[in-house]
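Continued from yesterday's entry.
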Amino acid sequence: MPDAEVLAMLANFILDLYSLGQEVHGVIFIHRITDVRLSGSLIKTAQIIRHITGEKFKGRFALVTSMWDLVEDNEVAYKRESELMRHPKFWKDLGAQFKFSGTEQTARKVARWFLNRTTFLEAPPHLLLYAQLKAGKLLSETDAGTFVMGELSKQRQKHVDAVERLRYEISQARQDRDGETVKIYSQIQAREKASIRQNDVMQRQMQRLALKG
């Protein structure tokens, strides 16, 4: 699911949650330790979460690495864990870290950390996304929305550049009377144009979404 759709879905969920008088006290982020690398999409997800929650929410996160029972090389796994914790755009300075090995004991350890924190006995700060929507901002104008809109703009430009390159390649293929190449490039170009249209739809949807009620 595209980031814009995920953010819109989360925004609606958060608005519904607060409308019921409920609060968000913390965030549990689960990540498979068996994943071979810290992907760009995972880093982007963490950045979106930072923008949704805001600076005041730091310390209320728990990174839970799972599937330790499937680890074959502990040294490699610990290096991955260290990379997760130290990466400035992923988990650095966000909160605690736990290992989940599929047992009730390790699950209770995470729950106990949340329950024992004195800050959780107080009213938590509002999520930044909610506070900004409550103040009348459109989703696209919030910190999280601005970040996602920026990513959408980058993606759109990549598709536009691809369409232009393909237009040149199609022109060259026509000059060479290479009908098969023209057909293949035209199909790829059509997909790129469809991606541009989808991107535009997502940006318009984000620009329209404001606080419910």
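--- second protein ---
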Amino acid sequence: MNWRPQSADDLIGQARSVCAAQASKARRVRDVRNAACKLLLYGPPGVGKTTVAELVARELTGTALGIESFNGKEVTVDAVRSWMETLPYGSLFSNWSVKIINELDRCSKDAQDILLTYLDKLPPGKALIGTSNLQLDLLTERFQTRFQSIKLTAPGTEEIADFLRAHWKVPRDVALRIAVGSGGCVRAAMADLETWLDVEGGGLL
């Protein structure tokens, strides 16, 4: 399914309101000379954390060329040291440069330790946006105190069903069945929707 949310209006559940608020904040600070951004989005899988991170990053930079994305397992000690060496330099493409780390909690312990130093030295015009499937109290306290931390909760069954019906004209019984089966995971609902569209949806996609 070739569909990606383009704004907060394309999201559902708490992800929509969080994205709208953080995107608005990003628009306010992107021209502020002494601003930096350290944001951690946490909550269950598939509720829109990565999408919110990407949309907020896009508001800050104005271009995908100013954004780098990583999985926590890719973030090694050597990688963070390399980032620290380039901290004094800005982006060639934007006033802001943003790093997104998905599953931040999967960084190694040593990488987490040096990442704390990176966060402390983060200069204006730089942003680090992390996501985690863990509850906040399972992340180290040192991380908690360095980020603005926001929890995203799963949308309800009816909300997911209404979302599917509004965007893809899915019959109500099918939308409800998909929503119930998703268990609040929007990503799972979208995967099941794609399967249904491939088999029975015909030209609805």
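The first strand starts at residue 37 and ends at 42. The chain has two domains: 8-151, 157-204. Will compare against the first tomorrow.
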